[in-house]
Specification:
By secondary structure, the protein is of the alpha/beta class. The chain folds into 2 domains: 65 residues, membrane protein fhac (Ubiquitin-like (UB roll)); 133 residues, Rossmann fold, CATH 3.40.50. Helix content is 36%, strand content 28%. It has a 10-stranded mixed β-sheet. A 3-stranded mixed β-sheet has the order 1-3-2, with helices on one face. The chain is elongated and about 120 Å long.
Length: 245
Amino acid sequence: MRALIKVLCALSLLLGVIYIGMKLPLESIPKTMADKAKKPIAEVNVVGEFTFLSKQDVQNIIASGIEDGFLKQELKTLKTRIESLAWVESVNIKRRWPDKLDVQVEEYKPIARWNNDGVITVYGNYIEVGDNSNLAYLPMLKGDESRSEEIVQIYVMLTRLLAEREIKIAEIEVNDANAWKVRLDGFYTIDLGKGNTLDKMKNFLVVYDSQLYGLGEKIAYVDVRYEKGVAVKWKQGNTNLVVAN
């Protein structure tokens, strides 16, 4: 019996030591974490290629959105606030111990202007940016916003057709009657009319290769709304029908 009592006492003592050893750290952890959660954010690092977006605008919106400490700050809400800026495509925010935030910002990359207040991105997305006159080096696409996807698709296909001849598009305009006009960069406007836009451009290129190449400075306007050939209006002279051989 004495031996059993000694064993039980030893076991109780051992369990007590283990309990105390476990109890102290567990009690101290919540207090430490609470202190860290309340610790203010000391630094925010904003990185990315800022071509169209102002880095200062991003920093300002972050400053106005930080409301809690390092661990309590809601990153999802802060991310949503930054993504509300017009040129922001994506945002990634990470905590960096002990009191910093790293913010990675990706901009939309435009390939064309849309009317006077928007742009089309490399993925074909339309975004409204307000006045886009500072992007005058990009081609202009004009048309109803509801048809933006169709117009962009045809713009891309026309661009590929013309690229073989190192010709660039300066502007595409599609009116309410679905009539297309394409202005070539440094050259003239081509009236494609309604329907069969790609086929008509191919017909134009046949005439261009055979009879119009090198005459861009003399041409004012080209009308391809004909089955055979194109009508050419010269800057000095009359309009005549040019038929490809």
